[in-house]
Design brief:
By secondary structure, the protein is of the alpha+beta class. Helices cover 26% and strands 31% of the residues. The strands form 6 sheets. It has a 5-stranded mixed beta sheet. A hairpin with a 6-residue loop joins β12 and β13. It is found in: Membrane. It is a single-pass type I membrane protein. This is Cytokine receptor-like factor 2. Belongs to the type I cytokine receptor family. Type 5 subfamily.
């Protein structure tokens, strides 16, 4: 009839406690109802009021009480208990939700793992052990179920880390009218028989070696690229800004013998050139060169540095060489002369 047509949720927690819940706002229009129960049979039923209500926005939505026997009768009434709104009698042991498995162990043998747990004290034949696992590359859990209390699965990759979780299921319809399972046991992480803290940091020796080799090759490649770029940069720099020759080496005697004194060096060079001409020219040419030298003193060509030093003799040194295609040595250089050329220092 109408009194037992509404939906309620009944859970027997491993034959220890009972929990009855209902949807208050949908069923009783936010009316604050009361709950009574009894495990008695026949005419000697003793109804007990609920002492531990479950609340939904301050309205009674369930009751938690101790299991006292296999047969249970429940009654939901109005707030003062004078009118019965719902009644149901049932076998409490058909609504059992088992406890999570205890002392779970993992045994690895190559690519096969066997998971076991302790047997419950009663009704072992009504339970099945479920194993779920996945690697960090899997999106969905893989499942394997076997009778309590051992399950075996194979095909695990020893290079991968796997997450495992187990629970106990109540057999339906042999033992339960509702498909209840225990809560999941704490999740564990394994790789090739080794228990890990998590699968976030699983690095196999092979992968570590690969990482080291990859990093080493990358560093060597970067060094090679930098070396090539450095060589090319030196070429570009040399072409854009060529090296300026140091005058210290072509004019070594100017800096070594005369400490950079240009006037003194010019006087010595003048004397050396004159000595060279005396050695290689005939007396007639020497006389003519000296005559032309005297004439050169009155010429308009002057040495700029000589004006500042008031030394007209050094500033107006000029030689007119008449020998056709003659070569005159000067400061380590050979100068090709002709009839129409003269050198001014």
């Amino acid at each position: 009839g109408g009194k037992d047509a509404i939906n309620i949720t009944i859970i027997n927690f491993n034959k220890e406690k009972m929990q009855i819940t209902w949807a208050t706002r949908e069923l009783f229009h936010n009316e604050n109802v009361s709950f009574f129960y009894t495990f008695g049979e026949g005419k000697h039923k003793v109804w007990k009021p609920c002492t531990a209500y479950l609340l939904d926005q301050d309205y009674n939505s369930g009751c938690l009480f101790k299991r006292e026997g296999p047969t249970l009768a429940i009654s939901i009434r109005n707030s003062n208990g004078s009118e019965e709104l719902f009644f149901k009698q049932l076998k409490s042991d058909f609504y059992i939700k088992p406890n999570p498995p205890e002392n779970v162990t993992f045994f690895w043998e190559e690519d096969t793992v066997t998971v076991s747990c302790d047997k419950p004290e009663r009704n072992v034949h009504c339970l099945r052990l479920e194993l779920q696992y996945k690697s960090k590359f899997d999106k969905e859990w893989q499942s394997r179920t076997a009778k309590c209390c051992s399950v075996r699965e194979q095909g695990f990759d020893p290079r991968k880390c796997y997450s495992f979780r187990v629970r106990l299921n109540r057999r339906v319809p042999q033992c339960n009218v509702v498909n209840y399972s225990s809560d999941w046991e704490a999740e564990t992480f394994w790789m090739n028989g080794t228990l890990l803290d998590s699968c976030d940091d699983d690095l196999t020796p092979q992968s570590e070696t690969e990482i080291v080799l990859s990093c080493s090759l990358a560093i060597l490649l970067m060094m090679l690229i930098l070396l090539i770029l450095l060589c090319k940069w030196q070429r570009v720099w040399t072409s854009v800004l060529p090296a300026i020759p140091d005058p210290k080496y072509p004019f070594a005697d100017l800096f070594n013998d005369h400490n950079g004194n240009l006037q003194e060096w010019l006087d010595k060079s003048d004397h050396m050139m004159l000595q060279t001409k005396l050695e290689y020219e005939d007396p007639e040419s020497i006389t003519e060169a000296e005559s032309q030298r005297e004439d050169g003193k009155n010429s308009d060509f002057t040495f700029p540095g000589a004006v500042e030093n008031n030394d007209s003799k050094a500033a107006e040194i000029a030689y007119l060489i008449h020998a056709s295609n003659a070569t005159a040595p000067f400061a380590g250089f050979n100068i090709l002369m002709n009839d129409d050329m003269y050198v001014m220092l």
